[in-house]
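User: Show me an example of a complex going from sequences to structure tokens.

Assistant: Sure. Here are the input components:
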Amino acid sequence: MEPPRFDFDVLVLGGGPAGMVSAITASESGLKVGLIDEQAEAGGQIWRAPWAAPSQGYESPEVRDGNQMRAALAQSHVTCLFGRRIWSVTDRYRVDVLGADGVETCHAPHLIVALGAHERVIPFPGWTLPGVMGLAAATIMLKAHGLAPPKDWVLAGVGPLLAAVAAGYARNGHPPKAIIDLSGPSDWFAALPSLASRPVLLKQGLGWVLSIVSSRIPIYFRHAVRRAEGQDRISACVIGPVDTDGKSIDGSEFSIACDAMMVGNGLVPGGEVPRLLGAKQVYQHELGGWIPECDAFGRTSLEHLYAIGDGAGIRGGAVACSGGKLAGLAAAHDAGRLDAKTFAQQSAQALAEHHKLSAFSDAMAHMIRLRPAQVASIAADAVVCRCEDVTRQELVSAARAGARDVNQLKHFTRCGMGPCQGRMCGDVAAEILAQEHHLSRQAVGYWTARPPLRPISLQSMLGHFDYADIPIPKPAPL
Amino acid sequence: MSTMHDLIVIGGGINGATTALFAARGGMDVIVIDRGPLCREASGVNAGTLTMQMTRVALIPYALRAHHMWATAREWLGHDVGVVVCDGLSLAFTEQEAELLTFRAGKRREAGAPIALITGQQALQIEPGLSGKALLAGHCRVDGYANAYLTGLAFRTALIHAGVTLMENNPAWDIRQTSSGFEVVTTQGLVKAKRVVIAGGVWIEDMMRWLGIDLPIKTLVNQLAVTERIPVAMRTVVGIANGLLSLKQYPHGTVVIGGGWQGSGSREGGACALLPERLVGNIRLACHAIPALKEARLARAWTGFEAETRDALPAVGPIPGIDNAYVIGSIHSGYTSGPYLAKLLAGQILGREPDLPLFPIDRLLKPEPLAQG
């Protein structure tokens, strides 16, 4: 039996800010637009819809903006295909999804990819212990479920997400026991002028600081987690000082007793779909790593394939919106639904907005950039690939055995072969390999993208079938 | 780059690497060049099956010897490449397939493969993971699998140890004949050698053309898939009569699903794509054979090239009309049989009498006979 098929003019993958705005914009030109997301509702991570109404009557700006955009989406002509896991994307363009009713295929000549980012954790011994979780996961717990962490929890890592999570949980009455910040006050002050370009966000940021200060949470600036300790789960973390590059330096290490840790070192663009389709890739360190090469409208090297949002370079929610607007207009224009003059007029405004936002997004992206010196400080016995239990030492040995690009490294060690397909470890493993050979990140390359984009059960792929219906090709020669 | 090597091997897959290894051990000064790292194309991404039940009849004597080489790889290669020797089952689910299996197993048995036909019930005793839907099975004790992705690491180490010069990530662009041998034009400069072996997988057609030889090679784009690690679901290699399924579970728990279902793409195009409906077909077949796989999650699917000559038999031997030039490739089920054929070729290059004949390409260079009438 053939899976159900949906046809559109434009398909948008990912219902975060970039995806929502691009879908609405493209549909305004009369195009038939489908928007696919794995979650039950649009919003992505930053605008993630809460499962229940906020208990204390407080509505964060993200929830407010998200609700506004969800309302706009509901009023648009966009067909929302939510609760669907995208597992395959093939040429010009077919998207295979798995939903509650099984597998379905979606087809469209224009494909806008807005699949966001995944988090980067710089490994340390013990980071795979139960009780240690990523910052992005922590924000999902906070935003969607309002879950309370255990009493003694610590927060570690770098960037604005650190402040947002600390303030969010402090507001809910669950402040962290300590904040371990890789950057120092001077890094934050350096970002202030660009922050001032976005008064709303500046106000939000100051609100975070106020929440943190009033909660009297101890902050350890220029420190990083050296290891997490515990038998069956984390019971303490040992932290130590770092220099301005994130390199571990001599100094007093000390232990903080805790039963949970949330840790994150920035974001890595989720560029698997353009990569799978063979779009040209470029390495942009400040934008989070490998991203598809795009023009100002998100057009990739492949015809009618657009990449926007954090998956096309870490720039945050506001730039995702303006990028979504631009890609939506470009798709409408490229599909012949928007004449050149109107396209130029409407995109001029969006382009100006896009540029205005870049000072702020660049500053934030800079704060969460990968620090090679921090990677160089990773302990030899730290597990880098947690799916396949590959340590830094094993990666270094493979490099010395002759692995010079990341795909060879994968073959030598199984690093990145597990269910996460290298999303968690890829950036760090590539950095370790590059450092070992004194090569550039460009030279060691990126892992080949492969379907399924997320693991799916074989049962769900099967559908109903009789043996006789399997279209078995002709036998191989004898 | 003025060194004159005894032998240059173009292509560092299983065929080229094994030829180079035995030639070097025979005393030659050997250089291997590859446009990428060693064994990163077909030799590194295939399903790793070491079976007689998918091997062509004419290749069975070679495959049996190659199987022994794989099983003892630690001795001659230094690494075991994750080889597991186990029973193999080729299943027939319908009367038609049973007929096909009976015929094919019979032919392979005549060629020396120890395949016995057993009932579906007997097959279930050998492999309790089976669905019980099989009517008949071919059972062979000489079966098993390797971890194909470890091939490059194993051969790299062995070649370096044998004193072979490696030039990875160095594409070749042309071969020129000189009075003393050959000059190969590569990205990193000219490489000179008295003898040349063309072992470029699906790309040997282009390489042969550098020498003025027209050897048509068909490119297959085989799809493969692997599950996440799951509890033990099977302990044998399982296929079906027509050869379009291969299944095995690795010691670390993942199950590799293959069988040569075709994806899209070409050797010129580079990027190859999986066709989702064929992946589903392959997986249906797999779950029909081993029902426990339904519970597994698909972790990854990929494609790999396979080269095929006009008669789907190997191209292994001297290149007609050009002294000291050889070709090796298009060995059907090449991962299984490659090491032995390459060892034979190395023997011939070293001037030894081969134990079994090679597969010279003269037969493939004549125009295809026209059909009657």
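The lines above are the inputs; the final block is the predicted structure for all two components together. The two ends of chain A are 31 Å apart (CA to CA).
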